[in-house]
Specification:
Oligomer: single chain
Number of helices: 13
Number of strands: 2
Largest sheet: 2 strands, antiparallel
Distance between the termini: 43 Å
Shape: elongated
Low-confidence stretches: 278-297
Helix content: 55-70%
Radius of gyration: 26 Å
Structural class: mainly alpha
Length: about 300
Amino acid sequence: MSRHTEAFLEMMAVERGASPHTLDAYRRDLDRFAEFLKGDSVVAATPQDVAAFLRDLAKAGMAARTQARRLSALRQFFRFAFAEGWRPDDPTSRVAMPRLGRPLPKVLSEAEVDQLLEAARAVAPPQGLMVTALLELLYATGLRVSELVGLPFASLARDPAVLVVRGKGDKERMVPLSDPARAAVAAWLPLRAGLLDRKGSRWLFPSAAKSGHLTRSGFAAMLLRVGMKAGIDPRRLSPHVLRHAFASHLLAHGADLRVVQEMLGHADIATTEIYTHVLDAPKVRLVQQHHPLAGKS
């Protein structure tokens, strides 16, 4: 290990508080770059050397995220080298970060959502009525989990067919409620009043938590228990997965992308467009598996 690398790692440990694991990762990344340079000094590397290193990683089939991590390590090192006066520039400043792409969200099928709701309805009250109302609301509206558990009781006051949601940036939006969601909430309300709301809680789903309402982790635990009853792999299930299912299923049935954007509360339609790629993924797999020219170069 060169004196430059030693000085860099010492700075990361002392000034940045980097953990031994992080320091070891930086050391390995710098060693691999040194091996690629075949004896040339790392601290004297050119932008062309860095770009060639990334091309070599890509050619070897390394994932874009790993390439990006290694470039990030080099950037940290060369910024330190520049600050120390070891070189007059940063050779990584003109090298673009590898494109990571955007992972497609996990989505349940419509049949799986039906299984989940059936399992929720089979849970004994009062928790069964509560989790059914939560799941019906989530699937009917695509709320963020923080919006769902923190729904004020007053959000139902204006119109029983519409839910008033205050989301990110304190922006208010109105989301229509499906008949099953309205029925599930109506079934929950008497128990809410009789069992959980003796002190007049302002929340639709009150609890003994410090916030006064059901917590995100509390709902996630309820969802996983219901998911197990429904036979759904816990690794495929989270509150956000039902938000994804809401958007994907609406688009699959012909909903307008702009309308879905408004209901999700997305500021940028590009965020909503990811769900169109979810719909396209099965078509891509179909072509790859069955087209006579698939796999031929």
